[in-house]
Amino acid sequence: EVVKAIPGLQTTIGLKFSKTSSAQDVLGVMRGVDDSIDKARNADAPVKGISVWDFDDTLATTKSNVLYEMPDGTTGVLNAEQFAKQGEDLLEQGAVFDFSEFEKVTKGAKGPMFEKAVARNKKFGNENVFILTARTQAAAEPIQQFLKAIGLDIPLKNIVGLGDSTPAAKASWVVGKAREGYNDFYFADDAYKNVKAVQDALSVLDVKSKVRQAYVKFSK
Fold first, then answer.
1. What does pTM read for this prediction?
2. Which three-class secondary structure state does DSSP give residue 1?
3. Cα–Cα distance, 189 to 172 (Å, whole number)
């Protein structure tokens, strides 16, 4: 089996492999990337658009927190913004996360990109609209119910809970969507590192894209 070697690809699109990753695991991921690149760069492919929204501090602001415990027994609490910024580092230090509170939408309000999402839904429909959140999948239904109550209807199957705050997780998911034939991307997230990882991935795929960072304080 031969997989294309593209200089800097693993770093550029944010893919990471642990020391325990098997050769088959790595080859499987890289074959997927190879497929994504081939499909994304097919000039004859029909336009297939996708909108991908982060939830916390992008579509909504909430008071939900993530609890964590360090190997030395130290415990702590992170809000959504802190989890996006610090989650990856804490995980590498051995933190164990408790998402029980993060699986609920607590004291929710409209976020800085909410009205933009509503406008895009009216223009393009919601079939190819996705929410990509660092929350776990258990939060999907509460997220759907909350957004629907304030005027944004997203299909439950299109709400993806990664349970992972790393930029690599979001970039890898986006690359997977290119493999499904999507070639016109709109991505919005409040965390710069996520925006940068996805932007870098899409630049490698060479697809049409708009990547935006949501600013809560500016919208207020």
1. 0.72
2. coil
3. 15
Is 181 within 8 Å of 39 (Cβ atoms)? yes
Two tokens, residue 26: 């790595």
Strand spans (E) along the chain: 49-53, 60-61, 65-69, 75-79, 96-98, 109-110, 129-133, 159-161, 184-189, 208-213
Q: CB of 169 within 8 A of CB of 190? A: no
Give the three-state DSSP class for 87: helix
CA 173, CA 175: separation in Å to the nearest integer? Answer: 5
CB 135 within 8 A of CB 100: no
Q: Are strands 208-213 and 184-189 parallel, antiparallel or unpaired?
A: parallel
Cα–Cα nearest to 83, from 62, 106, 103, 67: 67
Q: State the Cα–Cα distance between residues 142 and 51, nearest whole angstrom.
A: 20
The tens digit of pLDDT for each residue in 110-154 reads: 999 999 999 999 998 999 999 999 999 999 999 999 999 999 999
